[in-house]
Write a structure and sequence with these properties.
Layout: H1 3-27, E1 91-94, E2 103-105, E3 114-116, E4 119-121, E5 127-129, E6 136-143, E7 158-162, E8 166-170, E9 205-212, E10 215-217, E11 220-223, E12 226-231, E13 234-241, E14 264-265, E15 273-281
Antiparallel strand pairs: 1-15, 2-5, 3-4, 4-15, 5-14, 6-9, 6-15, 7-8, 7-14, 9-12, 10-11, 12-13
Bound molecules: magnesium ion.
Residues 157-159, 169-170, 266, 268 line the site of magnesium ion.
Length: 287
Amino acid sequence: MSPVKSFVVRFVTLGAVCTALAVDVAGAPQAPPSQAAPPAPPPSVVGYTDTPRHPDGKWRVHDSTRPVTRVVAPGTASTPERAGQPPADAIVLIGDGADLSKWRMKSGGAPTWKMENGVLESGKEYLQTRDEFSDFQLHVEFATPKVVKGDGQGRGNSGVFLLGRFEVQVLDSFQSRTYPDGQAAAMYGQFPPLVNASRAPGEWQAYDIVFTAPRFTDGKLAKPAVVTVFHNGVVVHNATAYLGPTAHKLVGEYTPQSAKGPIELQDHGNPVHFRNIWIRPLSGYDQ
Ligand code: MG
């Protein structure tokens, strides 16, 4: 191709891309607050059958035969006064009301923690979900005691234990110091949060956690557990691998039993409040 022809082809291609972008920006309708399945599009917009395949060979670039993505109506954000709505496909673990039917005590008995008007108060012994999970998105809201008592690890201490083994620390770390890998939002005993995004005692705070369970092959660790955590919307762990299950003054060792488990809330002797806890088990693309 001559340099002039090549330039024309490139210019025309670029023009088409720019036109497509302009249509997307100017012509796209505003997303509705909740989604219904879209109407069937004309065949010309659903993709291609002559494009290169991805390295794993499964799908082509812009593959027209790739499954239509499942629709999930998103939730709403919480305010200090009111918990938000979870996404439509979430399993609600703590909602409004007093329902603790998804929970039991770690020792197996019925829940003894107090639950009222959608607010749970930590009590004696760990509380755990009846169901077990592996890979998931988890939303947890908590508030440490408004009246501050104690310091360091004794100030609003609880914890979210993923699979009952990997703790994301709950603590009052607002203008309060402790060892960095034990402060609020720490992967306890392993990594401090990237930043301290704590709100004041008594204020509602949120963790949004994306967790991938460890994988084992022939009883040996193949991939460690990995977690991404947002604390009050601020990223504090970015796809960080746990060194092992959480332990105090130790580094825990992975065992094949740590591939799945319940969500647990820790009793550390401080009355911490929780609300609006939901979980979405995760699977792969095209499911
Ligand atoms: Mg704790």
